[in-house]
Amino acid sequence: MYILFLIPVIDFLLAFIGIILLSPFFLVLAILIKIDSKGPVFFKQERLGKNGKVFNIYKFRSMIDHAVEKGAGFDIHNGDPRITNVGDFLRKTSLDEIPQLINILVGDMSFIGPRPPLTFIPHKIEDYNDFERKRFQVKPGISGLAAIRCREIHDWNINIPIDVEYVEHLSFVLDFSLFIRSLLVFFKTDNIYSNDKIDK
To answer: How far is it, in rounded angstroms, from Cα 181 to Cα 188?
Structure first.
């Protein structure tokens, strides 16, 4: 189990290297986002992290500015008009998630772990039961067991038990396996408009 202590170190090093190598790509995407629509380059949103700690998750903005305030009452299967042209590409390629390298660098996230829920969906932190709270024993991740196993479905009733399964079987080998599998599916376009995409 001692090898698990290496995971935060590996996370930091990979995130640091990734940010340096991808910085020119960051700049290009930032320019495209600004040209395509008004608003900030990055979108930030409060999420629940390890032990229920609230933190701001970072993504490239893929919707019009103030999209959340303008409501989510759209038929996402027929296209959400709040999504920008560049944002559509970012979501199809999952490139909108890249700024979460910053979250890893500052220690709020890991490459692998349960996806961090909103502070009020599916529950406020105090409303999770003891079984569900196990998912908060580890840092949330950019990808993870539930994200890979249920890529075509986003249902907290399904995902939370899988998150708990991940925590109960946590190992370096499991994380490494999920990391490799995540790389293989990174550019797939399925589930890009799942119901948890209520950000921008």
So the answer is: 12
Cα–Cα distance, 115 to 168 (Å, whole number): 16
Element (H, E) at 161: helix 156-168
Does residue 106 sit within a domain?
yes
178 within some domain? yes
12 phi/psi in degrees, rounded to 5 = -60, -45
Give SS3 for 78. Answer: helix
pLDDT at 192 over 80: no
Structure tokens that stand for 92 in this block: 């199809």
- pLDDT at position 191: 45
Number of domains within the chain: 1
Domain extent at residue 17: 2-185
CB 67 within 8 A of CB 37: no
DSSP string, 10-26: HHHHHHHHHHHHHHHHH
- In single-letter form, the type of residue at position 65 comes to D
Tokens 């701001």 label which residue? 56
87-146 pLDDT, tens digit per residue, is 999 988 889 999 999 999 999 999 999 999 999 999 999 999 999 999 999 999 999 999
In a domain, 192, yes or no: no
Q: Is residue 199 part of a domain?
A: no
For residue 200, pLDDT over 60 is answered with no
Whether 16 has a pLDDT exceeding 90, the answer reads yes
Q: How far apart are the first and last CA of the chain?
A: 38
